[in-house]
Amino acid sequence: MRPIAVDFAPRRVWTPPLIAWAIACGLVTTGLSLKAGLAWDARQAASRSVEESQARLSTLEKKLREASQSVTTQKAPAYSRDALETARVAGFPSQAVLRSLEATAEDGIRINSVSLQPAQGIAEVALEFADYEALLRYIDQLNEGSPRALWSLVRAQSLAGKKLAVIRYTAAR
Length: 173
What we know:
membrane, rod-shaped, transmembrane helix, Type II secretion system protein M, coiled coil, alpha+beta, four-stranded antiparallel β-sheet
């Protein structure tokens, strides 16, 4: 008997397409690996940048705390109180106060004393008056032309037939 040679499928050679497929897969894998490596480097750089920013921020916060503590514990110079009082005295309009007292005349009003206190920003005038209406007219005349009332009545009293009053000039601040 003769042997039967049965060949159901012929043997095919797939070598060129397999090589092409292997090369394509290798190139795609290499490309994806490079892309992943670049993304990793970018992430590491961003992470370092965030850490550096946080370190700078904590340093600035520490400096701010130290500065605020030093400001709160720092005393004003010894001369500052005297300088402030000198500035108040220099800014007080004593000439204008005296001029307004000289320029304003009302029958029945007689000035007894003038007390200038420029450090407090006030001037007090003690006076005698004939009647209350004359006193109020006098105060209105002193305040005439100013946007707010600078002169005000502090007290008025009648003692032993004399009517005495104290009016006060308060400097605008």
